[in-house]
Specification:
Elements: E1 2-8, E2 20-27, H1 30-38, E3 47-49, E4 55-56, E5 65-68, E6 73-78, E7 82-88, H2 93-102, H3 121-124, E8 127-128, E9 131-132, E10 137-144, E11 149-154, H4 155-158, E12 175-185, H5 195-203, H6 211-225, E13 233-237, E14 243-245, H7 246-255, E15 262-263, E16 268-270, H8 273-279, E17 286-287, E18 290-292, E19 299-302, H9 308-326, E20 335-336
Parallel strand pairs: 2-5, 3-5, 4-20
Antiparallel strand pairs: 1-2, 6-7, 7-12, 8-9, 10-11, 10-12, 13-19, 14-16, 15-16, 17-18, 18-19
Helix pairs in contact: 5-6
């Protein structure tokens, strides 16, 4: 396996922070994990990077880092109605979406252009425009670093929640995901309920959209609203949309009728974090090397030459201000090292 010492992590984080790693080990197959286990590697602290699109680096990393680059696309089962495809954890997520769109496999087209690799997708239960990974998830394979065994997880075992899963809770730090299997429909199931998608299709005079039409619309929407990490450092949405008590949401709405409320249960609702941040006056805020994106308040950006600690400080200030103004706690979606 390829190992680099005293190397920069600049190519491996979409925020574009140039921090150093004492050791970076590239994992390209499952056998390499077994070798590491047999040599006692997992008895000492280490870290894992996949696409680096949900990561804020605030300091140099002393522990060795595993860079997961396991490839592979394997069609495991197919019927008239669906197909099961296993993807290696190192496969790029957007490339995965495009592969499915090209082959008319329905289910993940609404998640086009999400950055990162597929191995990290179940950890976050990624989602966009009315679709979440759990909607098409079949199973995954993960390496248990405590037992040295590979284990399979089905939908129920993954315990998916809103940007949450077993691997962010009880399983955190205990497993390395090596592949993900999706169950995709071969029968057209187009989801255009999300308003922005409908508007984009209407503007193009598309009344009977194909899977590619939906994917193209989502790509266009994301490009218009979200900065390209290759041009402006960011990790997409920095904060989760908070789930709060319905009574609190209605209290806020009484003073701010433009607040949108999305029911979760009889007692709980979800409200937009971007709305809270914008109403608190942070949208477009800029200071030195970092700021809040001018078009999307959920996105914190790095203009270059800065440090991850500057983003962390900004995020904490936003968190405190929103709590003071609305009595709502914003939770970070991004992992901070």
């Amino acid at each position: 396996m390829l190992s680099e010492v005293n190397t920069s992590l600049l190519p491996y984080n979409t925020f574009g922070f140039d921090v150093q790693a004492t050791e970076l080990i590239k994992i390209e197959n499952k056998e390499q994990l077994v070798n590491l286990y047999e040599n006692g590697f997992f008895k000492s602290p280490f870290r894992v990077i996949s696409g680096g699109s949900n990561l804020l680096l605030t300091q140099n990393i002393q522990e060795p880092i595993l860079l997961i680059r396991i490839p592979g696309i394997t069609q495991k089962e197919e019927t008239d109605g669906y197909v099961l495809i296993e993807f290696g954890a190192g496969e790029n997520w957007h490339a995965t979406v495009l592969h499915c769109v090209k082959n008319q496999f329905f289910g993940i087209e609404n998640m086009s252009l999400i950055p990162g690799c597929i191995g990290a997708a179940p950890i976050q239960n990624i989602g966009a425009y009315g679709t979440e990974l759990k909607d098409v998830f079949h199973s995954l394979s993960a390496y248990n670093i405590q037992t040295g065994k590979f284990e399979n997880f089905d939908l129920q075992q993954c315990q998916f929640g809103y940007r949450d899963s077993f691997f962010k809770q009880q399983g955190k730090g205990k497993y390395i995901i090596t592949s993900v299997t999706l169950k995709l429909s071969k029968i057209a199931k187009i989801n255009t309920q999300y308003g922005d998608i409908q508007n984009a299709l209407i503007q193009k005079n598309i009344t009977n959209p194909t899977i590619k039409d939906v994917s193209d619309a989502v790509i266009e929407i994301r490009k218009s609203k979200l900065p390209d990490p290759a041009i402006l450092g960011n990790s997409g949405s920095f904060f989760k949309n908070p789930v709060i008590e319905k009574s609190l949401a209605e209290k806020i709405q009484a003073n701010h009728p433009d607040l949108k409320i999305f029911p979760v249960s009889d007692e709980w609702v979800k409200i937009p974090a971007a709305w809270l941040i914008e109403k608190s006056g942070w949208k477009g805020h800029k200071r030195s090397h970092v700021g809040v994106h001018e078009k999307q308040a959920l996105v914190l950006v790095h203009y270059g030459g800065g440090k991850g600690s500057e983003i962390q400080q900004l995020a904490t200030e936003i968190q405190t201000d929103v709590a003071n103004k609305f009595n709502v706690h914003l939770e970070f979606e991004v992992n901070i090292w």
